[in-house]
Structure to design on (1462 residues):
């Protein structure tokens, strides 16, 4: 199995570039090579989806890009851009109310009180949580917390948005709505998005490219460009078709790994 | 093991009967359920008049006090020790009554509390700064981390020579003893709180771009608040104990501080007065603890830690 | 305080900081402060007073420059003299004599009965401790510094000792007034040895007045005025004993919140003697005893007294002079 | 704010050059990366000989001590106070040297440490039981919850009369003072730890059918361990301070305990000896803190709280 | 909208029965009626799937059945049976290793050391985490943690297994494998399962019945029996067909709520 170099057709400016990045956890007999020489370039305004089996290193990759962990080898460059990461777990702060959590990134930027109140309300509206601003995180359901985390990530106004299974705990309808909203925001704000999901259709619905990672160690094994015209519908035949193709490839990879 | 929850169901089976069948208007149903809830949670809910709420939290205390006084009285009646060694509750409460009726006593309480509050405030300030600094800079931690606990184990009395050297016989000398007694606790509470801030939150903070002061203000301090508060509680205990010793350093004629009065009661071997002062100190300690607990409860409620 | 240099040319300080204990053995200080005798004598020099609960704390304060003069017992003074190698202080007057002894429980009738008993003293190496050990030694009983030996000597602060005696946890204690009176009156103890009986003329120093050498050198005139106040206080006690008791007790009450009981006050005053004589001989003897029982490294006490100013004043007042000689 | 992580990349950019191009055998690649990791994490890794590791944690301490001694020496040279009030380091260390060369001193340390360990052990036992009981039974909490902090604010010396009443002048009297000084801290640490056990874990425990002792053994105690350890630390400080006071209560023929020796040094106004004892007490305090920290670090490592 | 009474065709013994159960959080102006007169019977050996929009009260319902929260009105009876609940978040104990977490329920039951070691290994093998027994929870990926939580729930040997989105963080392949395993265990041990999911196909793949909840307040609005023969495949046309039908119903409900 040789490493497949991602070579996107787009010609925009490289915003995230990884060059044979490896990440190893632990050391000695306890060592675990989570990522092995991953090379990847994400261009400005691109929407890249990451797919891979459970434990293959998707979250690890995001945290490396966000600068939360040190890479063990290789080079990684994001050109000092602002990064926002939506974690796999909601990780809201229990001492803040829902709107307090959403307002926090704005407070840190020094946004005026009235403005951030209003913006938080807008964002909560976007994630369909209007009227929940005064609740505490523990009073929300799992899916609601995830949506608050999304609102908080959007409040960061970052250049690069990294999302780790953001819609995993949502029902299909709410998720469809949020797909539309996310797509709109991505376009309007010219965001660069790296999006981790287990839902292949979701990946095809949203992504410009879908990148497949192998398991232990995580390597880039395939890079599917998605060319259907937007707006796409998750249950459209084109999306379903390409999703089936990618699923087959993924299935083959998981099967290979199982042997 | 079978999971049983009789209390939940027991209370409800009786209630069910009184529930009218299908209700169309959701608002009405809501109201009714609110009513039921109030009934069901009667023992726990925060509702009820202030007086009732007070009574609910007060009766176990009163009972406890009652039992202690009773046992004490029985021991006295049994004449285990002569009354001038172990006076009965009646004598002590009489003395206590006389004591707290004097303006002098309240002047003393004022003087002492003023010192305690100032000293504790300073200790909190210094402890917080030191704790934050120590947990932030690794070499500093290696250098003085352990010293903090070391300082704490030093009996206040050993600081007297240094206090006099530095501050002569002034109020500052007392404050010095109090601060050096309490600040390490505050710092330790903060350090241990910071050390146990969940990694996920730290990572969230990093992603949100928190650095330096903002990180402390918005993440570290609120996240370590529980441990910090328990550090404050301990710090208070230390500062109060140090104060009782420290007040013997400088005696300002006029209003006699509690520490001096206590020492005098001991010097004069007036058992009844000694016990009176034990009670006074306990009561002050308990009142302060009630304040801390109020803060703690508010915090736990906000964090969603109350209820089962 | 001493740093306040107003009129230093004339040897007078702007203020003097005087220490004393809220304790009946410091009666001249209590009365002098209460009745304004010091301030009267000091005139424009301001009197600032500080109180202490124990000698070591007072010496600490004196060493650190927090006070200029203090009433104090003989042993802390000797220790202060020794640790500073004779540079820190001078004894300038006597104040109190007597008022200490061994109280024991009923049933102990002789020295021999002390064998195997627990006897408390205020602290290792203090006046009473040395007195007890010397007394035991002269009676053929030994007691080591760790509380072992024929008699177990336990250093305990006075409050604890009185308490422990009341509860039968110790068999006796060699204590100063007013604890002596209290143990006798409240706990039905009996006096086995009155320390008075061990000294020539029944006199031995309990309290005296010391001053820092620096202050003495800089402000001799102020020291003299302080002494004037002291002499006046001592004199007042001998002329109006009842008034003195009342004044002392009032000052005690102001300082500690509670006066002594009348009977204890009276009994204590009876056992005490207030005098300007520092009874130097007893100091030297006591130091010698301490050396003998191994509680004091040999120390040269020569020059610890500076009684010149006191004697001048006594002479002017028509009283006999006192001496700093080893034997009177 | 742009997120920067120069340290992560700075270290790596240099390293990259030395990485040979594509490697086929994953094992070989793994080994190489292990090597790089070790290099990169050099400053932090737990590897390296025992001596090196010791040195790494020791140098900041030595530096700190060096600075303190230097400042002290300068103050002494400046003759701010006469040497018999503030002796120089040389004098003190000489005295300290003589002191610790005597067998008597070590006997005293032995006696004191034995008492401290016994008393602290008892305090932990009692504090744990009381803390667990108080946090379990609501009425008990209402009754004596605040009393615990109240007791803590009581100066040890006020317990003397009671200690003598109950235990006469025996070792038990000392232990009593120590235990009553330290147990409240231990209990408070446990209580606050229990109060802050995340609700989710409690619910998991309930689902797993944990009740009574098993719940404490498998859920509450491990979950509240961080706070409990910090309570133990504070409890140790309290017990040590109480012990220093308590040792003056009873002097057992034989070896003179540290508390008594300290008091004597003070009584004799021997500054140099007083400072020597301050150092001795500090060193003991620091050594004990090092033990607690070791426990704490092991815990944090298990919980995954180390590293960024 | 009237409440639909669940009336299963099966005739087994009722294991879980809810009769007009309501649950309200908070009180006064802050009150939130999470469940409103839910009536539901689950019979022995049944596999019931719960579907509903995010925040409609699915987790609340499970925690009521598990006895973790008090019901506000109505009656609930599980006949004193052992219940095991797999939470929406993994909620592993950080002070225990992976196998320690899995062994814990057995320790509580007093199972001998050797036996529980072996059983834990078996269970970790079932959830495809062989060899991860000595790791700590924080060393696992999100999906791996969820699988450990599943192993822990299975280790409880309960009569009733409540599962709250157990496979939400898993890739399709791993999930398929676990579907098979879960089905096997359910059959072999005659478990009664209540299974919350957002994936309608998953619900049809696994359930004997699929129950639809409405949002705020949560009410049972539909009860679909699933009658296709087992073993089913998630991508089979029958499953897809019924899933589409249920999805439409759900979509209508969410749309109604949005208005
Ligand atoms: N802090 C850590 N310490 C040690 N190993 C870790 C750590 N974090 C992750 N790993 C390991 O790295 C591998 C990749 O983990 P990662 O969280 O990136 O997976 P993932 O692709 O996000 O999986 P999932 O889809 O289940 O979330 C896993 O095998 C995991 O055990
Ligand atoms: N502890 C609580 N206090 C107050 N309100 C709560 C609490 N728990 C849940 N709620 C509210 O109850 C409603 C139902 O929550 P629940 O967690 O049961 O939803 P859910 O169906 O599991 O949703 P999801 O699919 O997003 O997990 C939500 O509106 C939520 O805000
Ligand atoms: Mg992940
Ligand atoms: Mg839920």
């Amino acid at each position: 199995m040789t490493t497949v170099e991602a070579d996107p057709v787009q010609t925009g400016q490289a915003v995230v570039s990884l060059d044979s990045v490896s990440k190893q956890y632990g050391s000695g007999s306890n060592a675990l090579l989570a990522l092995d020489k991953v090379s990847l370039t994400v261009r400005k305004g691109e929407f890249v989806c990451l797919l891979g089996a459970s434990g293959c290193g998707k979250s690890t990759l995001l945290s490396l890009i966000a600068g939360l962990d040190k890479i063990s080898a290789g080079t990684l460059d994001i050109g000092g851009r602002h990064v926002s990461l939506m974690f796999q777990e909601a990780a809201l702060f229990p001492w803040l109310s829902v709107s307090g959590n959403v307002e926090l990134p704005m407070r840190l930027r020094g946004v005026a009180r009235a403005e951030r109140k209003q913006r938080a309300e807008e964002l909560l509206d976007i994630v369909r949580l209007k009227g929940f601003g005064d609740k505490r995180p523990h009073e929300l359901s799992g899916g609601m917390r995830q949506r608050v985390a999304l609102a908080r990530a959007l409040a960061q106004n970052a250049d690069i948005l990294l999302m780790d299974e953001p819609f995993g705990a949502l029902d299909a309808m709410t998720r469809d709505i949020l797909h539309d909203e996310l797509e709109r925001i991505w376009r309007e704000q010219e965001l660069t998005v790296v999006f981790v999901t287990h839902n292949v259709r979701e990946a095809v619905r949203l992504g410009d490219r879908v990148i497949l990672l192998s398991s232990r160690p995580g390597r880039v094994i395939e890079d599917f460009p998605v060319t259907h015209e937007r707006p796409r519908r998750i249950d459209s035949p084109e999306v379903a078709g390409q999703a089936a193709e990618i699923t087959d490839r993924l299935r083959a990879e998981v099967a290979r790994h199982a042997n | 093991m079978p999971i049983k929850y009789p209390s939940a169901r027991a209370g409800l089976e009786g209630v069910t009967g009184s529930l009218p069948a299908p209700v169309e208007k959701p608002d009405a149903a809501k109201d009714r359920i609110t009513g039921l809830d109030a009934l069901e949670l009667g023992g726990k809910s925060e509702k009820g008049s202030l007086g009732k709420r007070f009574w609910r939290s007060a009766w176990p205390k009163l009972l406890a006090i009652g039992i202690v006084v009773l046992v004490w009285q029985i021991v006295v009646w049994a004449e285990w020790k002569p009354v001038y060694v172990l006076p009965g509750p009646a004598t002590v409460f009489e003395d206590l009554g006389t004591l707290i009726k004097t303006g002098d006593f309240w002047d003393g309480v004022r003087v002492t509390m003023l010192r305690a509050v100032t000293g504790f405030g300073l200790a909190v300030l210094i402890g917080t700064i030191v704790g934050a600094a120590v947990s932030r800079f690794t070499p500093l931690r290696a250098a003085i981390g352990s010293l903090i606990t070391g300082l704490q184990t030093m009996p206040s009395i050993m600081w007297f020579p240094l206090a006099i050297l530095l501050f002569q016989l002034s109020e500052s000398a007392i404050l010095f003893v109090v601060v050096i007694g309490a600040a390490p606790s505050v710092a330790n509470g903060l350090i241990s709180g910071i050390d146990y801030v969940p990694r996920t939150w730290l990572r969230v903070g990093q992603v949100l771009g928190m650095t330096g002061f903002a990180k402390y203000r918005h993440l570290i301090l609120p996240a370590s608040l529980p441990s910090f508060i328990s550090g404050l509680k301990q710090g208070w205990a230390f500062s109060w104990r140090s104060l009782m010793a420290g007040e013997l350093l400088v005696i300002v004629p006029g209003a006699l501080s509690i520490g001096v009065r206590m020492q005098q009661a001991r010097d004069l071997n007036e058992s009844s007065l000694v016990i009176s002062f034990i009670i006074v100190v306990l009561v002050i300690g308990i009142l302060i603890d009630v304040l801390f607990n109020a803060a703690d409860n508010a915090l736990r409620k906000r964090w969603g830690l109350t209820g089962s | 305080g001493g740093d306040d240099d107003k009129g230093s040319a004339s040897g007078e300080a702007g203020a003097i900081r005087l220490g004393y204990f809220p304790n009946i053995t410091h009666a001249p200080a209590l009365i002098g402060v209460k009745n304004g005798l010091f301030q009267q004598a000091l005139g424009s020099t301001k009197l600032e007073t500080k109180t202490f609960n124990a000698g070591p704390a007072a010496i600490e304060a004196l060493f650190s420059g927090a006070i200029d003069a203090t009433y104090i017992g003989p042993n802390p003074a000797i220790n202060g003299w020794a640790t500073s190698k004779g540079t820190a202080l001078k004894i300038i007057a006597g104040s109190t004599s007597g008022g200490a002894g061994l109280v024991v429980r009923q049933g102990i009738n002789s020295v021999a009965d002390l064998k195997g008993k627990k006897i408390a003293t205020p602290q290792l190496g203090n006046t009473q401790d040395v007195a007890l050990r010397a007394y035991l030694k002269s009676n053929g009983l030994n007691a080591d510094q760790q509380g072992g030996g024929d008699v177990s000597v336990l250093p305990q602060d006075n409050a604890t000792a009185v308490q422990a005696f009341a509860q039968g946890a110790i068999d006796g204690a060699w204590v100063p007034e007013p604890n002596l009176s209290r143990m006798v009156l409240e706990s039905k103890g009996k006096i086995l040895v009155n320390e008075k009986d061990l000294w020539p003329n029944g006199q031995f120093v309990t309290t005296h007045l010391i001053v820092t050498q620096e202050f003495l050198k800089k402000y001799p005139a102020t020291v003299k005025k302080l002494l004037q106040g002291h002499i006046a206080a001592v004199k007042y006690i001998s002329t109006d004993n009842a008034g003195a008791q009342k004044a002392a007790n009032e000052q005690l009450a102001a300082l500690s919140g509670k006066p002594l009981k009348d009977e204890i006050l009276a009994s204590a005053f009876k056992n005490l003697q207030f005098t300007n004589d520092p009874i130097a001989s007893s100091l030297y003897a006591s130091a010698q005893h301490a050396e003998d029982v191994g509680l004091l490294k040999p120390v040269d006490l020569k020059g610890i007294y500076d009684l010149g100013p006191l004697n001048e004043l006594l002479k002017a007042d028509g009283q006999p002079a006192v001496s700093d000689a080893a034997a009177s």
